[in-house]
Amino acid sequence: MEHWDTLCPDGLRFCWDESAHKPGTDAFLLGAFPRLRPGLRVCDLGSGTGLLGLLLLQRQRDLCVTGVELQGPAVALAVRAAAANGLQDRIATLRADLRDIRSLLSAGSFDLCVSNPPYFSGGSGKAAPDAARRTARSETDCTLSDVCRAAAYLLRWGGDFCIVYRPERLCDLVCALRENGLEPKRLRMVEARPGAAPSLLLVEARRGGKPGLMTEPPLRLTDASGAPTAEYDAVYFRTSN
Fold first, then answer.
1. How far is the C-alpha of 222 from the C-alpha of 101, rounded, in Å?
2. Residue 209 in contact with residue 185, Cβ under 8 Å?
3. What is the DSSP pairing of strand 2-6 with strand 13-17?
4. Are 236 and 55 in contact (CB under 8 A)?
5. CA separation for the pair 238, 28 (Å, rounded)
């Protein structure tokens, strides 16, 4: 079943389908992580229904976002969402395999790449019930290295790649980034509550950057009482800050 929601009161509308990968906290966290400025050229690798691009545009309208997505039904929803928001001049989605990125887009043509990639290597993690969700969850159609390789090709020298991932695969992520000339520069762990082990991580890497990683304080979703933190509310546009 298809659903339409808004990111915030009077905000951009996004579309998702119950039969596909549902919008999750990880997308909203990644949408709030990049340091945006007007005029950035952004590529969303594995863009799904286009939610992440809309999250970025909700925060900074003066962006140009290109999504690359393999699954046709997701691309169709992304195109409809762009039209519903009147953003056809700001966001476009290509139905394509990011492993073929060199035949799709020009090298060094983006300032920022973002990705909410599959978290699990092939054969690991909870089995998904259908092909669409398997593609979203597991490295069946592309690997972490494929995603990093595509980002490195697309980014201009000094451009940034922001990604959300699982803490238990941090070593895999750092290796894949460095193997492709992307130097990790900023790391933030996400904790569900104080004292909990991190459940997600956010990393910013730079094309051609020098070594030196800044570890930011953890982003906590709830406080000791279980109430959402102010920062978590801001991720969901529930506050003005």
1. 39
2. yes
3. antiparallel
4. no
5. 12
Question: Structure pTM?
Answer: 0.91
Q: 61-108 pLDDT, tens per residue?
A: 999 999 999 999 999 999 999 999 999 999 999 999 999 999 999 999
What tokens were used for 124?
């690991």
> How would you class 130 by CB atoms within 10 Å of its CB: exposed for 0-12, middle for 13-18, buried for 19 or more?
exposed
Contact (CB, 8 A) for 163 and 58:
no
Q: How far is CA 230 from the centre of its chain?
A: 22
What's the Cα-to-Cα distance from 131 to each of 70, 71, 134, 139, 208, rounded to whole Å? Answer: 12, 10, 5, 12, 36
Tokens of 18: 């119950």
> Distance between CA atoms of 9 and 111, rounded to whole angstroms?
30
